[in-house]
Amino acid sequence: MPSFHNTSPLNKDALFALLSARFGDGYKKLSQIPDPALLQDANKAAQKIAHAVRNNKKITLVGDYDVDGVSSTAIMVDFFRQIPYPLEAIIPNRFNDGYGVSPNVLNRVDADLVITVDNGISAIQAAKICKERGIELIITDHHTPSEILPEAFAIVDPKLSTCQYPFKEICGAQVAWLLLALVKKELSLSIDMRSFLDIVAIAVIADIMPLVDINRTLVQEGLKILMTSKRPSSIIIKDFLNKSSISSEDIAFQIAPRINSAGRLEDASIALEFFTATTVSGAYKQFEILGKLNELRKETEAECTKEALQSALACGNEHVIVVSGKNWHEGVVGIVAARLVESFGKPAIVLSTENGVAKGSARSIGEVNIYELIKANESYLSKFGGHKMAAGLGLQEEDIDAFRIAINKTASKLNPDDFIPKEEVLGVLDCEDIDFELLNLLESFEPFGEANLRPRFLLKDVEVVSISLMGSDKSHSRITIRQFPHARKTLELIAFRTVLEMPEDKKITCSYTIGQNEFNNKISIQLLVNKIF
């Protein structure tokens, strides 16, 4: 039996105090978002963009193929459409172009000004090419910079050590949105910057930004705007989810994977066309394609995960899992890395190899900064980039073993406590306290996500009354439990993607979360199994 962080009884008052403590600085209003001009080079960049618009210069935007990159690009495309001003938007293809504003992408760019969103902080070579060709380059990014920066006209990135922006943990779409607020001012436009918050919220959630400070505010406002927006893509999302209110988890589990699937398996332009569709039928068509790609992504990911799990078992007691495979789909290695983190409770790096070259993704756990671990061993790598919890990297296949040994040596010097997941249970709730009043209490602390996890509670050695399988393929379990002997009230737990059999002692210990289920306009309380111990 594992030792839990907290097995003490918990009532509603104690829970309210615990959750309130997560927001020691209180809650920010939209009007309290720090001035975008505090972002280093943001004013300079906004003036250059405004000058390019006034002088009819050719502007090309280079985005990225994940949700944040596509969202950033979509916000820029919509903004320029409202000016109106012609903007060429390119999202690199993961397989043909590689990541970001690469020399490969610049081969097909004919512009006076290139703007990057959600990439560019490590584009040293691309910046040199822009300079040689007389193209001015504005980089907007949120990834951690290296010591050497690209030579660009302006670099807008909150992670720059000299940047004065007070909240650093913002995603690429937020950086783009803040910059555009300054462009709006420079050009004296009447564009409503709040109208982009539906897309900003999706990016913040999908890029696993901490849902505290201004991020909480933007996601809360963005999800409200999503419910009333006339944007075709938002109308489709709202109709698809079919709920009276949309949560951050709805976006994280049902929308973000669909949007991501385009760049992972085919081309992110499909997702961009979804976000920027001008008609509901156009958005619906793209959403249908995204749905099919997402199903394919699930199949590909399941296959790759199975093989990666086998390889990971051979890693023994290493601090960081590093596995590679020849037939692993490059587009799903990030998700597979996340699955390994879940299974083994340690950081994981999953690499796809082809023609002697390995490319892959890393995911972290607890307080382990995976970017810093990778950076400490960059001598083995041809490229890398990312942030604390997730990173991308490339190296020669022959260097994988040496890199694995080296990164584990570095990781062995970390404090063992850094590897403890931040998912501890808050305590044990009495069944009698699980009611709509509790549901309302929990809802007041939404949106839940990174740095504001949905509270997890513990059921310890409770009696299992019955287990039934559900779903078309009978792959989910419905567990009826009795918390105390002789208690009249029973509770029902749902364990998704888990087939359970009745335990020999008819007892179960698990962590769970409480949420609301909305079906046929009827709202009920739903208890979801998080982990069975």
Q: How does this model look, in words?
A:
Helix content is 37%, strand content 20%. Strands 3-2-4-5-6 form a five-stranded parallel sheet, sandwiched between helices. Strands 7-8-9-11-10 form a five-stranded mixed sheet, sandwiched between helices. Strands 13-14-15-17-16 form a five-stranded mixed barrel. The longest helix has 34 residues, at 280-313. The chain is globular and about 80 Å long. Helix 7 crosses helix 10 (248-265), helix 10 (248-265) packs across helix 12 and helix 11 packs across helix 12. The protein contains 16 helices and 17 strands. By secondary structure, the protein is of the alpha/beta class. It folds into three domains: 9-18 and 423-532, OB fold (Dihydrolipoamide Acetyltransferase, E2P), CATH 2.40.50; 33-291, inorganic pyrophosphatase (n-terminal core), CATH 3.90.1640; 314-419, Diaminopimelate Epimerase, Chain A, domain 1.
